[in-house]
Amino acid sequence: MKKKLLALALAATMIFSLVACGGGGSGDSTGSGDNVTITIFNSKSEIQDQFEELANTYSDTHPGVTIEVYYSSDTVSAHLATKYASNDPYTISMVDAKDVYSLGAEHALDLSDQEWVKDTNYAIKIGDAVCGFPVCIEARGLMYNADAIKNITGEDFDPATCKTTEDFTALLDKLVAGGMEAPVGIMKEDWSLAAHYFQEIYEEQPDPEAFVQSLYGGSADLANNERFNSMMDTFDVLKKYNYAAASPVAAEREVSEQKLAEGEIAFMFGGNWDWSLIKDFNEEANLGMMPVPQSTADDYNTKLVGGGSKYFFIDSSDNTSEAQVAAAKDFLNWWVYEADGNAFVTESCALVPAFGNINADTLDPLSISVKDYADQGLLVDNYNYDPDDHYSIVGASMQKYLAGDVDRAGLAKEVENYWKSVTPVEH
Amino acid sequence: MNTNTMSYKTKQYLMFAGITTFVFGAVVIIPFIYGLYLTFTSWDGVAKTKPFVGMANYTSTFADSAFWTALGRTLFYSVIAVILVNVVAFILAFLVTSGVKGQNFFRAGFFVPNLIGGIVLGYIWKFVFNRALVSIGSALGSTTLSTSLLSTTGGAMFCLIVVSVWQYAGYMMLIYVAGFMSVSNDVIEAAKIDGCTNMQTITHISVPLMVSSFVQCLFLTITRCFMVYDVNLSLTNGEPYNSSVLAAMHVYNTAFTYKNYGTGQAEALILFIVCAIIGVAQVYIGKKAEVSA
Question: How high is the mean pLDDT of chain A?
Answer without folding.
Answer: 86
